[in-house]
Amino acid sequence: MQTLRPANAGELLEAVKDALADATPLEILGNGTKRDLGRPFQAGRRLETAGLFGITLYEPGELVLSALAGTPLAEIERTLKEQRQELAFEPPDLGPLYGLGEGMQTIGGVIAGNLSGPRRIKAGAARDHFLGFHAVSGRGEAFKSGGRVMKNVTGYDLSKLMAGSWGTLAVLSDVTLKVLPRPEKTRTVLVLGLEPARAVAAMTAALTGPHDVSGAAHLPLGLARLSAVSYVQGAGRGVTALRLEGPPASVAHRCAELKKELAGFGAVEELHSANSALLWREIRDARFVIAPQDRPVWRISVPPQSGAGVAGKIARAFDAAWFMEWGGGLLWLSLPKELPDAGESVVRAAVGQEGHATLFRAPADVRAQVPVFQPQAPALAALTARVKDSFDPRRILNPGRMYAGV
Amino acid sequence: MPPLMPAPDRATIARRGEIAAALRAIVPGEGVIVDDVALRAYESDGIAAYKQKPMIVVLPDTTEQVARVLRYCHEQGVKVVPRGGGTSLSGGAMPLADGIVLALGKFNRIRRIDYANRVVVAEPGVTNLGITSAVQHMGFYYAPDPSSQIACTIGGNVAENSGGVHCLKYGMTANNVLGVEFVLMTGETVRLGGAHLDSGGYDLLGLMNGSEGLLGVVTEVTVRILRAPAHAQALLLGFPSNESAGDCVGAVIAAGIIPGGMEMMDRPAIHAVEDFVHAGYPRDVEALVIVELDGPRVEVAELVARVEGIARTCGAVYVRVSKDEAERLKFWAGRKAAFPAVGRITPDYLCMDGTIPRAQLPLVLKRTDELSRKYGLRIANVFHAGDGNLHPLILFDANAGELERAEQLGADILRLCVEVGGVLTGEHGVGVEKRDLMPTMFTEIDLDQQQRVKCAFDPLGLLNPGKVFPELHRCAELGKLHVSGGRLPHPDLPRF
To answer: Which of A79, A131, A170, A235 has its CB surrounded by the most CB atoms within 10 Å?
Structure first.
């Protein structure tokens, strides 16, 4: 398959116009780390944005950064770190989940997937930090939306539509993001030996308390053993982790208070900076469900109080390896490889109407038969198709990646 | 004068009696208003200068009624203007002579409070403050706090993506809404999100926030609630110039501190406020900055000391730290009364709402001052300094025929905001007021793409027409794709 790698916005526009003119569907990629996510589809050409790279604006005092869509996230994170700043939504690095290396993804890919890490519960999602963009629509037109300021309600917020559209509406050429100061200090309180329902109760107590918790995850015993953090690996029990960040004195104080408050739940431990960083990176990147690579992986978002119950229903049906974060609101599950539908019917029944499940990893033939994204009610499905029409009427951008015909 | 609205359709107006009867069949009792005096209550929103009596007002109280009203209007080609608390500062709820106003005032119940999942499910007519009031006894609150929060509704907040003084740290409405139920113009009901985060599929929930009532009518909102900060303290900082005040704001952020609120006022605003509420503001400074720090007590103490040090380095000539809750609220009482305070010293005022890159503040204030002199109208500036959202208040007297001049001055200020890299509106919305300025920020292609999204929701353009977009195109026209002979015309022409 022919691969196009435009070196500037003008070439990107031409590439899409050509595809429109000769009715050739395009597969849109950054560096391709997440190309195995979604329904398989037929494309006549591959369009990579990795040739559009570079940070074009960074003003730390204004908390704003713009970069071309193909800029490696790693480069952006490095630049921000020099100014003690970061992307507060903690974009996960899912390269290893798909059997690829670390640190390869582009900022455009991060936004196209609207992927957020453990701090989602406090800082918001990728889309909440996405201020503006330039892109080329499937109509072969370069357009923009949003801006470079924090607060903006001028016209529809098309940034929201771009985030999480997986390249099916337009090809991003540059993005502008809100950046925030890095916390000065991080500690993690561990509660050991909790059953899942009890873990959700402990996380809820922490998240509804005054201590500004910025991460809340639970690893059942089998998964805690896989951690590279020795305290977690050797705990010999399930581990519930709660992260505190901020100025040093504040973190120390909150940590002491939270330990007191959670002591009634079980044995309490504490991780300091380096171990905290490592553990939350493992959680962020779903490291605990990566191996074996041939097992399907689901990512499920539910109301936090439902997390343990949904996981329990699925784990009773299958040999599931799973953990939860977002205080119980996000589940990552790896299921047996021999399931013909990757466990879809059981997963969707367990989730019901109050949440959504995405088949993040499965062989292409399974993804061709099983809805990868949460199925939509008829009115919403029709609206989704009309929104697609408004950007990409000829279906030339990642057609069918999210839903058949879209 | 309000900008020109689409010409009223005489045939629709002639059918008023028949339409009212059909609506009464859907919404029984007092829910359909046709009486001239009663209709007057709906003739304007927060912009009192823009008046238009609606053809009919409908007050449904169930989602099913909303759906049936919209389906009927869709089938009959009747325009609909949705309305929440009627506090819009951009004319977003301004009625149409040939349209009905769909008022959501009866949707005023909180349906569910779920502390464990940290959400409240509310009907759209519940006020912004009503949500916080319902949960504050348990130590929770709803973060976005527009200054009209006593009267504005959560449905209206979604439509406008409303902000407030705490946006920099806690986000705007879009960042705090987890789900909505809404009805399309065709009468179809759609549910998005819920008590869980980041629903898959296109983020139509994010799109609905700030869509100004043009995409659908919201009938239920799920918001996230937060535990109220354990402690909050404010600093009142006076500076000898707008530049030094602006530098201080930038230095606080550069030091890695994100305050709960960071507000700024210029000398005319300070004096108007002090005369009105006696908040204890110093009169002999050019600019005043209020910085609020919230969080655990130990953290607040540390950050207050750091901000105080930064302020002194930036040349603050007045520094006061709130000693107790009463004093903190007094600091804010002045800021929150800024608009009425200015209203006291002038017969009329216009409130602008541009956002700028904060570093451009000294330049923008200098050029605003030049514009003020050119037009011969005074301006007081109130500024959400942390996120660069500027509210110049233009003082004028409508009875002296100054409205048009004030509007021109306002438009020039907004053009200036765009010129320095900012935007036309930070939190009040485009509505009618800024509609005709949209081309200063967007190309025709940009605006056409936005209108195509509108077409996906409302193909006949019946929902709140005449707002946001300066030129209305038919959806069929917008949908056309001009591909000729296998090639687009002029492939080498730069389109952007």
So the answer is: A170
